[in-house]
Structure formats: structure tokens, C-alpha cells
Amino acid sequence: MFLTISATGTPERPATDLGFLLHKHPDKAQGFSTSYGTAHVLYPEASAERCTAALLLEVDAVALVRRGKGKGRGGAPDAALAQYVNDRPYAASSLLAVALSAVFSSAMKGQCTARPELPARPLPLRIEVPALPARGGADLVRALFEPLGWTVTVEAVVLDAAFPEWGDSRYVRLVLESERLTLAEALRHLYVLLPVLDDAKHYWVSSDEVDKLLRAGEGWLPDHPEQRLITSRYLARRWSLTRAATERLELVRLAETDDSAVEDIDNAVEDRPDDETDTGAEAAKGSPDASADDGDVNAHRSTDESPDGSADGKAVSLAVLRRDAILAALHASGAGRVLDLGCGQGQLVQALLKDPRFTEIVGVDVSMRALTVAARRLKLDRMGERQASRVQLVQGSLAYTDKRLKGYDAAVLSEVIEHLDLPRLPALEYAVFGSARPRTVLVTTPNVEYNVRWESLPAGHSRHGDHRFEWTREEFRGWAHTVAERHGYGVEFVPVGDDDPEVGPPTQMAVFTMNERLNDPNAKEEKAA
């Protein structure tokens, strides 16, 4: 099997710069040993105007069988002869991808010691793969390469030219052309997509393949329209590996969109035992309201619980009071399908699951660490089929619209908005009230006026280190009324915890209810008339 990489140039930028980038001299033919044969690099042409490098891989069929041990098509023991007589030596596959990575490793990393300015320079490239197995046909080939900036020419290879009635084979001849990609980008595209199109690997796929995929897919895979197919096929359809890769890619996508580091996005869960929950002992600590229901705009909650006193003198954590208030409001609304936007470690989701009136519960969080803890808390892997059908945990950012969140009866934003920088609050507002548009929205947030009642909280400090702001009752009500008027909701306010006559309750909750008449097209027409 082989492929060619060609570049055109000018006297000022000669095409032979390709040799510097590949770290292979155009005047030499070189051979490199691989696990399954020998890779040869040679240059059929090398001038200032045009330079072509060819990678030819000679596959040792016997070594492939011995090393494959039944894994992948190369070692598939479906027939004794088929182990040795197959398409592996001729059709581009994971074997060629591995050879690319081994022979052109520096070029794939974008490194060139002799000419450090070259790797970042886009080149007029042409790549030809004469025999490429394409499970999915020419349409899939285009769907994979065209979004990456390639002009794609793909021709089906007939089974036998002497018998055209037999039709086409599953192989294609592929030509890729681009003038705006670097060589490193081109090689990384090939490294991932060649085995994806073949839909097979010649070696056992283990967890380290996820890291390889993310490294090679950096900068293009998170936003690729066929990301799920690419991830699944590259990881040999192993569900656990595919899920892990998809979760990490989503974090990368959100971080890039948010112009943040991945570590800043996935920071939702502090290191603490999973069984540490809301207890009287926790409440007795007298800590301010850094509650387990806290979360950021990308939907997470921190873990510390805050106290409040009940009427009978028994210590009850404010987080418990808050969840009780939320459950009461949801019952009053008649909601059956509920979104927990900022589900964190799943405390509210767990409470909702205990009530059969809630038929569908979706927890949304940007942090996969938080969702992993939530899944453990809920024991999703051991949950019965009927109960499991009522709940799902999904990764997502509340700063962006998400069609998955549409059509629900109610949504809860419990201790979430205060973790968002104020200039970004309108994005969350539109994503929830303008796009998702549940009939009922519950929003809880700390009441900064109550902070003077926390003996352990220094004056002027927020209840949680990640709070971007804390509102007075007047500020919260002003925001809520503006949101309600803008998006066609009514709003009422409910105190959570001891309603101090001077400073109000520790937590304030707004209950938004969609104004059905304002959202009825017929009613709007009557009003216009």
C-alpha cells in the first residue's frame, strides 16, 4: 500500500521545502522497519516547482497474523488461507496510519529544527491514495474530509473492469487538494481518518487510543460534524472508550468556545468522599452558604453545605430546605418532566427520582467529573430498567442554546447564576427562557443581605469563593421581572429558610411561569387586531 504527498512551489518558496518538513532528504530512498513490515520513503520528483514524497509500506502477512492473534481483519481466523491472502498489503488502512505516525512523527507534531518557520506555513498540497477501503462509500469520504478544508476527488474502483456488471468494489481512489492547510494538519487528518474509513484496526484497541485520537484530533475533531462516527470507528466501536473520548472532546469544544482552559471548565467537583451528604453535623458547622447546590453557568455545584435552623430547633441544612422548597414549587406547577440545570453531584436529581410524579428527569452539567460523581450517587449502573428510563445525565453548557433542553415542563437553576460573570448572564437567560422555554423555571440564589447573619463569614466576603456576584432582594427581583417581561413569563418570589424581618431569607427563589396567553399565537393575533 502507498500514498503520495505533493506540494507545488515558487523560486521564493520552493516545493522541496517538503523534504525539510518530512525530515527526509529528496535525494535519498530510505527504509524503516515497522512491526508489520518495511516502510519506504522516496521522492519520484523533486524540484522547486513540484515535489512529491511517496510512502510505500510492504506488509509482512506472516508477521501480521502472528502479531494480530485474531484481532482486526488482518488476524481474523475466518479461514486459514484468508489470514494470509487478503487486502491488508494493498489497501490503505490502520497499518498505513501507524506507518505515517512512525516515519513522519516530527512532521505530524509540526516540528522542524532546520527550518522552524515552515511547520506553521500552509502549503499547496495534493495527497493521493490509490486504494482506500471506504465503508460508507464516496459520500462518507466527502463528509469526512470536506469539512476540514479539502477539495475531495473520489473515484470508485470497479471489482473487475472486464465484468462491469459486477459493479464497484468497496475501494476508492482518493485525491485530496488544499492550499490552506499545514502539512502537520494534513498528516493528522490521514492518521485518524484512514482507519475510520476502513472501519477496522489491525491491533487491539486499548484506553491509550483515546489519548492518541485526542492528540491527532486537536483543533479539528471537537467541531467536526461527523465527530461521533469518527470517534466510534477509530476506537473500534468500543462503547466505554467512545464515551470517554466524546466526553473529553465536548469539554475541549466548550473550552474553545468559551476561550478558557479545559481545567477551568471541568472544575466543578472538589475532592471529597462520595458519601459526604447533608447532615445535622454538617449544619452544625455554622458555615455560610457555599452549598451543595451551588453551580456555575456551565452548570455545576460545589460541595459544602450551609446551615439553617428549623422551627423546632433541630438543625437542618439550608441545602435540604432549598431542595424541599424546589420540590414543593415543582409539585405546585404540576411538572412531570424536569430539567436540573447544574445538577452537579446529583443531589436534586436523587430527590426527584424518589417521587414518582416526576416521570422524566434530566441532569445537565458541563463537568464530566461532576456527572461521574452523580452517576455513582444515583447508582445508575445498578438501577432497574424502569427507574433508569426516568433519568439521564447529559453534558452541556448553559451559556449556549441546546435543542436537547426543549419541551420540558420545568427547569431548575439552583445556586447557578451567581457563578456567572454578569456580562454573560444574558446568554444563560436566552438559552433557558428564550430557547428551551419550559413552562416553569425555578431560580435560587443567595441573598447577600443575609450574609451579616453568618458569624463565620467575614464582612464583605461572598459565601463561596467562586461567586461572581451576590444580589440583594431588590436586585434579584429587578432582574427576574426584566427576564419575565422579556420572554413572556410571570414571576413570584418565595423565601427559603428563616425569613428574617430585617434582612430577609438566606436564599431567595423566583418561580417563573410561562404566560400561556402571551405565548398563544391566536391570542397574539387578537391583540394585534
Structure overview:
It is built from 18 helices and 16 strands. With 529 residues, it is an alpha+beta fold. It has a 7-stranded antiparallel beta sheet. Strands 12-11-10-13-14-16-15 form a 7-stranded mixed beta sheet, sandwiched between helices. Helix 3 packs antiparallel against helix 6 (183-198), helix 6 packs across helix 8 (227-234) and helix 7 runs parallel beside helix 9. The longest helix is centred in the middle third of the chain and has 20 residues, at 239-258. It is elongated and about 90 Å long.
List keywords for this structure.
about 525 residues, alpha+beta, seven-stranded antiparallel beta sheet, seven-stranded mixed beta sheet, 18 helices, 16 strands, about 35% helix, elongated, disordered C terminus
Low-confidence stretches: 69-79, 269-313, 524-529
> Distance N terminus to C terminus?
73 Å
What Rg is obtained from the alpha carbons, in whole angstroms?
30 Å
Strand order of the largest sheet: 2-3-4-1-5-7-6
Strand segment count: 16
Helix content: 25-40%
What spatial form do the alpha-carbon principal axes imply? elongated
* Average pLDDT number: 82
Q: Tell me the number of helical segments per DSSP (H or I, 4 or more residues long).
A: 18
Structure class? alpha+beta
| Largest sheet features | 7 strands, antiparallel
| Fraction in beta strands | 15-25%
Task: Summarize this structure briefly.
The chain is 33% helix and 22% strand. The chain is α+β, with helices and mostly antiparallel strands and 529 residues long.
